[in-house]
Specification:
Radius of gyration of chain A: 18 Å
Distance between the termini of chain B: 51 Å
CATH topology of chain A: Aconitase, domain 4
Number of strands of chain A: 7
Largest sheet of chain B: 5 strands, parallel
Oligomer: heterodimer
Strand order of the largest sheet of chain B: 5-4-3-6-7
Helix content of chain B: 25-40%
Number of helices of chain B: 17
CATH topology of the largest domain in chain B: Aconitase, domain 3
Strand order of the largest sheet of chain A: 4-3-2-1-5-6-7
Strand content of chain B: 15-25%
Distance between the termini of chain A: 37 Å
Number of strands of chain B: 19
Structural class of chain A: alpha/beta
Order of helices and strands of chain A: EHHEHEHEHEEEHHH
Strand content of chain A: 15-25%
Largest sheet of chain A: 7 strands, mixed
Number of domains of chain B: 3
CATH superfamily of the largest domain in chain B: Aconitase, domain 3
CATH class of chain A: Alpha Beta
Helix content of chain A: 25-40%
Chain lengths: ~190, ~475
């Protein structure tokens, strides 16, 4: 996993609330057996016409979305299915962070384990971001601080272990495997 | 000792290493259920690290999501329609063989939807921790297990260690009192609960469904309720085990045998919330007032009693978008709206009792002209039972399409889809945009409402046909 310390980028805004993982990546693309290349299918049904051509009005098809690393979305982002294909698709497209007033539990875990940072903010900050698409935003994971172009600095919370892993580029697997002796003892004690 | 909740008890019984401020808990997994869609990349990870599946004896695989339901495709005289799905099925077979995991393959009589076969075989038991790369793993909470969906990376973690890194969620008591009215089912109950607390009302919590209404539910009904916990944002929903649970499990192929039964049951009985246990939050539900429910929008929280009108929230961006997608308007009534497809099945409502409920309405009646009624049993065992009981004959006589088991039309990835713009009355769990196929318009209901609507060809209150 790539270390993630700081992201400075323009935002892409999708204002909808309760964006479920079926929208992020529809089920028909889950027949893949790898993680690669899913960015093409990110938000496929909102992004493409029936014939596969891009829908011009959808934000990811507009030039200002190009190169943006931060997605801003309405509250309860990533609800529904546990498919990890959702963060894979977002990362493959080029996003490194999602800012929302709320992020669904399973999606949050899946995102963190892949190096996609979910940043949960208060309603006021969320509203500001939703109303200022393309704003240049700075996310400092070390300081757990989001800075808006207005100069406003907003503190955000993140699970300490996930933060540690992201900052150092470690994945959680190595840590979990280091606990194998404890797991073996637990099993032995249960009989 | 401090009184503890059911969830507290199951959690602490599986805590290998307790959580600290800096590190999550290491939580032991008793049972890892596996299917073909969310595992290929996890097996690749094992291969990359040259690791085995650590406890194949605690791992059980089936195929359900991408498998076809047409008999000729399942049993080989026709190829699987979707190439990538066929590849996924082959890869599941290869991986199961390579890693020594028991797999209920395409032709196995025990194959079925992962959340149906766990309980059916008796591998799902009270007090267990159960995970699966599928959000509807919450279903198994109906037995007093802590069961939740995980992502593919975590599937790999469980393969390699039989444990997971987890922060302990908060607890939410859902207190349900009152008697469900005739024609009102467990599906209506959970849809009403989701309508009440919202699609993110359970985020960060494990739910415990409690109260006299819950005690009166059968295991099948409890599974329907727990199944949709995730649609309220909760990773897990639990119900304390009782005589109903024990009666259900007794004699199942992988439940404890007679000589071990007494000890198992005594242990299971400890998995209940203590009388003064404190929950982080609670909500009260009045079951006696619940009517047959139906969704009108694009998430399960957009739900109304079937006789009611769609609320008018014009100007609310999400509502307006949902109405455009569904082709509905705020203020319209739901009854009498035309239906194109009716789907009865899924891990929510694909059990034998669901099929019996539908058959009660379909017996001696015909599916309305132009309506496609697809009935898909949750497992091959349920299929055999439904055939032995004559349900399949009732369905076929009514003009329904009767299939092999699988997730089928719950999600459009196996060849069973709803065409763009069509209205699908469905007993599944998600009415998200495109869930049943690109442009498909899904309305979630109970099996009774689905069957009644198939007969009338339009959205129908099932109490008219009881």
């Amino acid at each position: 996993m790539q270390p993630l310390q700081r992201i400075t980028s323009r935002t892409v805004v999708i204002t909808s609330t309760d964006i479920d993982t079926d929208q992020i990546i529809p089920a028909r693309f889950l027949t893949t057996t790898t993680k690669e290349g899913l960015g093409k299918q990110l938000f496929a049904d909102w992004r493409y016409q029936e014939d596969g051509s891009p829908k011009r009005e959808f934000v990811l098809n507009r030039p200002e979305a190009h190169g943006a690393q931060i997605l801003v979305a309405g509250r309860n982002f990533g609800c529904g299915s546990s498919r990890e294909h959702a963060p894979w698709a977002l990362l493959d497209y080029g996003f490194r962070a999602v800012i929302s007033e709320g992020v669904a539990d399973i999606f949050r875990g899946n995102a963190l384990m892949n190096g996609l940072l979910p940043v949960v903010v208060d309603a006021e900050t969320s509203q500001w971001l939703l109303h200022h698409p393309g704003a240049e935003v700075d996310i400092d994971l070390e300081a757990m601080r989001l800075t808006l172009p207005t100069g406003a600095a907003i503190a955000f919370a993140i699970e300490p272990f996930a933060r540690h892993c992201l900052l150092s580029g470690l994945d959680e697997f190595g840590y979990l495997r280091s606990k194998l002796p404890d797991i073996e003892r637990f099993e032995a004690a249960r009989g | 000792m401090t009184p503890r909740t059911l969830f507290d008890k199951v959690w602490s019984a599986h805590e290998v290493v307790a959580e600290t401020r800096d590190t999550p808990a290491v939580l032991y997994v008793d049972l890892h259920l596996v299917h073909e869609v969310t595992t290929p990349q996890a097996f690749s990870m094992l291969k990359a690290h040259r690791l085995p599946v650590r406890r194949p004896d605690r791992t059980l695989a089936t195929m359900d999501h991408s498998t076809p339901t047409q008999s000729a495709q399942v049993f080989g005289s026709l190829p699987i329609q979707v190439d990538a799905a066929a590849k996924q099925v082959r890869q599941m077979e290869e991986n199961a063989a390579e890693f020594g995991i028991e797999l209920f393959g395409m032709h196995d009589v025990r194959r079925g939807i992962v959340h149906i076969i766990g309980p059916e075989l008796g591998v799902t038991q009270p007090g267990m921790t159960i995970v699966c790369g599928d959000s509807h793993t919450s279903t198994h909470g109906a037995f007093g297990a802590l069961a939740f969906g995980i992502g593919t990376t975590e599937v790999g973690h469980v393969f390699a260690t039989q444990a997971l890194l987890q922060r302990k969620p908060k607890s939410l008591a859902v207190n349900i009192e009152g008697q469900l009215q005739p024609g009102v089912s467990a599906k209506d109950l959970i849809l009403a609960i989701i309508g009440q607390i919202g699609v993110s009302g359970g985020t960060g919590y494990v739910l415990e469904y409690r109260g006299s209404t819950v005690r009166a539910l059968s295991m099948h009904e409890r599974m329907t309720v727990c199944n949709m916990s995730i649609e309220a944002g909760a990773r897990a929903g639990m119900i304390a085990p009782d005589e109903v649970t024990f009666e259900y499990l007794k004699g199942r192929p992988r439940a404890p045998r007679a000589e071990d039964w007494e000890a198992a049951e005594a242990r299971w009985r400890t998995f209940v919330s203590d009388p003064d246990a404190r929950f982080d939050a609670s909500v009260d539900v009045d079951a006696g007032r619940i009517e047959p429910m139906i969704t009108y929008g694009t998430n399960p929280g957009m739900v109304v009693p079937i006789g009611a009108a769609i609320p008018d929230r014009k100007g609310d961006e999400v509502f307006d978008k949902a109405m455009r997608y569904m082709g509905f308007h705020g203020g319209e009534g739901m009854l009498g709206k035309p239906v194109n497809v009716v789907f009865i099945g899924s891990c929510t409502n694909g059990r034998l009792e669901d099929l019996q409920a539908a058959a009660g309405i379909l017996k001696g009646r015909k599916v309305a002209r132009g309506v496609h009624l697809l009935i898909v049993p949750g497992s091959q065992q349920i299929k055999r039972e439904a055939e032995a009981l004559g349900l399949a004959e009732i369905f076929k006589a009514a003009g329904a399409d009767w299939r092999e088991s699988g997730c089928s039309m719950c999600l459009g990835m196996n060849g069973d889809t709803v065409a763009a713009g069509q209205y699908s009355i469905s007993t599944s769990n998600r009415n998200f945009e495109g869930r049943q196929g690109k442009g498909a318009r899904t309305l979630l209901v109970s099996p009774l409402t689905a069957a009644a609507s198939a007969v009338k060809g339009s959205i129908t209150d099932p109490r008219e046909l009881l």
